[in-house]
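ok trying again, last paste got cut off:
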Amino acid sequence: MNVLEMKGIYKSFGDLKVLKGIDLKVAKGEVVAVIGPSGGGKSTLLRCATTLETIDKGSIEIGGMSLCSTVGEKAEYCGKKELSEIRGKFGLVFQNFNLFPHFSVRRNITEALIHVHGKSREEADQVCDDLLLKMGMPDKADAYPCNLSGGQQQRVSIARALATNPEIIFFDEPTSALDPELTAGVLRVIRELAEENMTMVIVTHEMSFARDVADTIVFMDGGVIVEEGPAASVINDPSNERTKAFLAGY
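nice, full thing came through this time. structure:
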């Protein structure tokens, strides 16, 4: 079963065509790493999948529900009720953490659980405590983001994304704002999630991590998918010249 299906995705900003007919499927339990040069459309693809941007044309299904489909020339989106349900099916981890600075770690993790998903405070607190233990930060519930390192903030961000028990998690360059030492801790958490068969789409520049953790690698450039295949074969033996030139830089 596919948790995510994106078909014929087009997206422009004014005259700038950013996505030019992208097709992407992600099966349950699959880890897909999206690689490619800056400006190739990777982050825009993620933003379209997670409703932060609307597409011009194409169709998106998440968790078996239709987010949007194209009638005639324009993509039409589902209603508010369905949209809210679909948003509950995915988690999103940003490169710059996007934590609420005036909320404690606990409140960052539990806020949506209580106010959007209707959990009791006790239930939400239990989810928070379990996740902080998983992230190796059991003593940080009452800390504020400004008291945490970048790596710790990113792990809180991952805990927040996991809190709603999503069917798929999207990561947009989860380590690009971190130094190498802190990067290792965040990648270790993502690696553990992969071992637990969490369905994930990860936009990353960490090539060895992508090769080791992802099932499938998608190489994007110029708003199209240039090459897609099993992680080890794309990284170690790419068939497309553009992919080879890009990976030569690593």
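cool. The two ends are 34 Å apart (CA to CA). The longest helix spans residues 180-195.
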